[in-house]
Amino acid sequence: MKERGLAQATLGNYIREARRFLSDRFGGGAIKPDELRQEDINRHILRRARAVSPGRAKITVTVLRSFLSFLHQRGETEIN
Predict the structure, then answer these.
(1) pLDDT at 1
(2) Average pLDDT of each block of 10 consecutive residues along the chain (80 residues)?
(3) CB neighbour burial string for 27-65, b if at least 16 within 10 angstroms, e if fewer
(4) What's this model's pTM, rounded to 2 decimal places?
(5) CA distance 74 to 56
(6) Distance CA 35, CA 26 (A)
(7) Which residue, of 10, 14, 24, 45, is most buried by count of CB atoms within 10 Å of its CB?
(8) Residue 11: what pLDDT?
C-alpha cells in the first residue's frame, strides 16, 4: 500500500512519530489541535534530538512538518 508515494513502512514511522508528539503534548487527555503552539513543537523536537540519532531527529522534523501542514489544510490549527 502506498499513500502519496510513501511505502507502508514509512507510513508506520510517520504515524509513530505523530503519535509520540501528540502524547508528549496532550498526554492521555483530549487532543485539541487548535491548542498547539510553536513552543510545543520546539520543545518536542529538542527533546527528541537529545534522545535519538541525528537521522531519527530529522525524521521527527519531517513528520511534524507534514502532520502540521495536514492539520492546517483541514482548518484544525493555525500552525503551518
Answers:
(1) 41
(2) 65 92 95 94 96 94 94 86
(3) eeeeeebeebeeeebeebeeebeeeeeeeebebbeebbe
(4) 0.83
(5) 27
(6) 10
(7) 14
(8) 84
* Residue labelled with grid coordinates 487548535: 34
Provide the grid cell at 78: 493555525
Place of cell 512538518: 65
Question: Cell 525524521 appears where?
Answer: 59
Grid cell at residue 38: 510553536
Quick one: pLDDT at residue 80? Answer: 64
Q: What is the DSSP letter of 6?
A: B
Amino acid at 78: E
